[in-house]
Amino acid sequence: MNFGHGRHHWVAKQKKSAIVFIESKESKNLSIKTISQIPIEIPILTLETDNEDECGILQLIIKSFFLVDKLGEIAGIDPGKPGVPEFGRKLYNLSFEKTLTQMMRINN
Fold this sequence. Notes:
- By secondary structure, this protein is mainly alpha-helical.
- Helix content is 52%, strand content 9%.
- It contains five helices and two strands; from the N terminus they run αβαβααα.
- A two-stranded parallel ribbon has the order 1-2.
- Helix 2 (28-35) links the parallel strand 1 and strand 2.
- The protein is extended.
- The protein starts with 6 loop residues before the first helix and ends with a helix.
- The mean pLDDT is 85.
């Protein structure tokens, strides 16, 4: 779980936040401990699997896809094609190799 890596700041400051836990049998104890620390007013949804193998992982991925699809439907957007702002396109198209090459020239 990565919730403790700063996500709590977002949830504390954004009034329309919720938390989705994705858990297997192996992670259930950690989920319970984490959930017990979340303020009661923050909505929590848990996606679970009883499968302990790769099928469980696939089951959770599929469940998360259905959740995102439903949330997109409610919000009136297609999560697969949400639209990208111009600065997002520029960020996406940055050339990592070109930037790395330029950085190496500067440092040499």
